[in-house]
Amino acid sequence: MAQASPTPAPPLSGPMMIFAGLILAAANFLVVLDTTIANVSVSNIAGALGVSPSQGTWVITSYAVAEAVVVPLTGWLSARFGAVKVFVLGMLGFGLFSFLCGLAPSLSLLVLFRVLQGACGGPLMPLSQTLLLKVFPPKYAPAATGLWAMTTLVAPILGPILGGVLCDNVGWAFIFWINVPVAAICGWLAWKLLNRYETPLAPARVDVVGLALLTIWVGALQVMVDLGKEHEWFASPLIVTLAVIALLGFLAFLIWELTDANPIVDLRVFRHRGYSASVVTLSVAFGAFFGINVLTPLWLQQNMGYTATDAGHVSALLGVTAVMMAPFAASLSAKVDPRRLVFVGLVWMGLITVMRSQANSQMGFFDIGQWLLLQGFGMPLFFVPLTGLALACVDEPETASAAGLMNFCRTLSGAIATSIVSTVWTDNASRNHNDLAGVLNDPQAVMDQMGAVGMSTEQARGTVDQLVQGQSVMLATNQVFLAMAVLFVAAALIIWLAPKPTRVVDTSAVH
Fold first, then answer.
1. Residue 291 in contact with residue 417, Cβ under 8 Å?
2. Would the pTM count as exceeding 0.85?
3. H/E element holding 363?
4. Which of 42, 133, 205, 455 lies in disulfide reach of 459, CB 3.0 to 4.6 Å?
């Protein structure tokens, strides 16, 4: 029996309403910030914990996967425990595990705490907007949603900058510890201010089997791509086992979710051709986009001699033009066939990525930064209309579940792409090193010249090897960029499998 809802408390006053809105926006800002704040910190974390940079990217992927898995549980958690309670406990848990991330003495513990941090953060994004629309009356809802959306756009820009500054000046642990006071204050204030807006409780059944299968196959897949390189992929029984678990878990998940009356993920929305084409396009494009965003700071720090701060400034340039372009893209989405906008945006992203694949180690800050500024113009052109197109292709009652599933696919594709890109980049660098070392033009003569100016044999050999290694990494970076450009163009072609939408959907609730 559903619990009777209490007599509604009087609404907040104007100033307190705005204050509550800022608290909810800050919570969303914090969760989104943590998807990018670690990007420029991977090298620092890897060095401090004694692991390779490719292993360091687990800090990014573990958070993203945990967040993606927990988001579908938000509705059940709210119905079972109340939206405000779940929000407050999520904030406090997010702060606690952020604190533990900064204390982690090993990569394994850091990844564990990042998983728990992501699990706590998953419900905060949808709940922050749900509560925002409860706090503000309908006539102010557009302004409140705009405030919320702005934090979603700005946080990924500030993440690399803030992460770089903290890493270089006070240490990598502070990229996590900075969350603690904000989470604690927001959690406490949210409980004080929003308790009056608590949602009534109702008996809610959770698809335990579906959730377990989802966790198993996603977890096995992510661990497989994370560990594949160091275990020589399918030459390792461990990787083969993980691949089998992922495959069987995925098949079981499909069968269960398609036959269960109340699935945790409603896969039936994929029967709509337009939705399927849009989600595949989004997954491919976002995977390419997120992969190069993780690779850029790694390349700048390891090959170009940038500090984490400088790498953060360069990485953030992409978001600057993306924010400027977002309102224009949203306006066009209601007037122009969204498939055209998506196609133009993705082809633009692909062309700029091809230009980026011509990089060399003599480039300066502006030479690299101008490419990211240009690429930022294309991001809203594909992301904003693609979201609207996907949701316009499903039946209206399916919009919420379709939005959640799309968010899951996007987040998962970004996590998997990060692992694959870092592995391919490292492997290509090693392969390029061997190839270049075999075609050096009279290396002994070069070493003799170095010896003539006072270098020892070891110093000369080290210098030559350093030069070869630098060019090997540069070539590997360009090779990955070129592969990502191909994915952007492929995604641009896939979108034409979707039919032209017959209605326009409000995408403000999509993260």
1. yes
2. no
3. none
4. 455
